[in-house]
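Hey, quick one: can you model this chain's 3D structure?
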Amino acid sequence: MKLGIIGLPNVGKSTLFNAITKAGAETANYPFCTINPNIGAVTVSDKRLDFLEKLYKSKKKVYASAEFLDIAGLVKGASQGEGLGNQFLSHIRETAAVVHTVRCFESKDITHVMGRVDPLRDIEIIDTELILSDIESVSKRLERLEKSVRLNDKKVLAEREFAIKVKTHLDAGNPARTLQLSDDEKIILKDFFLITAKPVLYVCNVAESDLPEMENKYTEIVKEKSKKEGARAMPICAKIEAELSELSENDQKTFLKDLGLEEAGLKRLIRAGYDLLGLATFLTAGEDEVRAWTIKKGSPAPKAAGVIHSDFERGFIRAEVMSFDDLFRLGSEKAVKEAGLLKSEGKDYLVKDGDIIEFRFNV
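Sure thing. Here's the predicted structure for all 363 residues.
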């Protein structure tokens, strides 16, 4: 899971990144503080692994991980190279999804690059630059296709027609992700490597004074915007999350309780990232190790086995599967077996989130 944190300068991107990774990315009250993207991996906390570690007395515990890129603030004209924009846009292309951080707080101390807080305008500035960058990319592709059209190749003609469809949509000021496509067209679009085709999560960065509800007039605007385009939005207070990340687990619980919050916003953010990318987690457990593995939702058992090792997929025989919920409820693997809840599944089995699996294979 590779997520790019983007937004205008001074909206709290690096503060959020610091909170996520404790990497100490530089934060400052001026544009382009971040020139090269800060990259950090964060473990995805999972209480299921903690339970399995104790149950199996495992020597090692390995959580799933997510990678975040703190990409420099984009500005108006980025697609034309303003503010080192072309360089920043190339960083976004490397990510699987975009965390678009939107400033939803007032502050006399932190300058807004546009002079005043207006989340809808801020989003539209970023969207416009990303769309313009994609238009340039599709236009270059069309130029190449036009040179091959005279060959009357059906595949080239079909791709040219599709590229025109995509460019028309972008020219109208719409991100590629809002284009209605067939399943086959979605596969073709992936090969275009468009920034605006990536799924987006809007993070509304609110003030501490907005806690615990984390709602204000600005967050409502962003939520309405996200709803219209089929994206997602969630509020978070980056400043508080950064403070939380410096505390011990017990102190975090106390701090959250004092703030009236049930859990840290970063846990919600990572869950949202998994949902955004359609990811799920299956588990392996034993005396040597308990581990969480990340897969696409609905992956067949052999594909999930391949995440562990290509030999597992190539020589797949079957998967011995039990659900974590059953194991947690019954208290032991033996009890799960006696209840008839340990299943032997074949190649067509679609792995579910929370499945505990032992793969049988032969190569």
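One thing worth noting: The mean pLDDT is 89.
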